[in-house]
Amino acid sequence: MVGSSLRVGIVVLAVNFILLALFLRALVAPLYLLAASVLSVAATLGLTTYVFQDLLGHSDLTYYIPFAAGVLLVSLGSDYNVYVVGRIWDELRVRPLREAVAVAVPRASKAISIAGIALAGSFAALALVPVDAFRELAFMMTVGVLLETFFVRPLLIPALISVFGEASLWPGRRPPAAEPEQAPAD
User: Fold this and answer.
1) How many CA atoms are closer than 13 Å to the CA of 43, on its beta-carbon side?
2) Is residue 142 exposed (0-12), middle (13-18) or buried (19+ Cβ within 10 Å)?
3) Cβ-contact 90, 171 below 8 angstroms
4) Is residue 182 part of a domain?
5) Range of the structural domain that residue 106 is part of
6) DSSP state of 25
7) Would you say 169 and 93 are in contact if contact means Cβ atoms under 8 Å apart?
8) Rounded to whole angstroms, how far apart are CA atoms 128 and 96?
């Protein structure tokens, strides 16, 4: 069971990496974007385990919930990554990296926030089903989506892009920045 779950997890990460690399036309950015998603899933799993085992007294989480929610959250995170980083890459055509981040992230964050709240609310509705596994999945997905929406995408990803700088674009080339306008000659 553990071996097949590990293989599926590796395939999910590999597919997400390949898709991010194709859409972003880079190899460095997809690595740290996936790492951020995996850390987000780990934080979500830790919080879910704490709530259900320590606060609610469950003996254990349903065995497939962490894996199923993890796959879904990594994939949803990749979707949000394409949107945010794609906006940053677009802004790189006309401005330097840090400026591109400063302009693109607030624009993308509004759409991601609205989508994240709607998605988290939809997942939260699963808690109405009187089955522990549904409640665990509802909690884990809701917390994971909210963490991705309000922490990872608007704060962590822009910070990582700023830290890695133009190396994020490797092996692609930096889009040409617009020429600064010159004042007319007298």
Assistant:
1) 16
2) buried
3) no
4) no
5) 2-169
6) T
7) no
8) 48
Domain count along the chain: 1
pTM: 0.84
CATH number at residue 76: 1.20.1640.10
- Residue 174 domain-assigned (yes or no): no
Contact (Cβ atoms closer than 8 angstroms) between residue 29 and residue 85? yes
Residue 186 lies inside a defined structural domain of this protein: no
pLDDT in tens, the chain (186 residues): 567 878 888 999 999 999 999 999 899 999 999 999 999 999 999 999 999 999 998 888 888 899 999 999 999 988 889 999 999 999 988 999 999 999 999 988 888 999 999 999 999 999 999 999 999 999 999 999 999 999 998 999 999 999 999 899 888 765 555 455 555 555
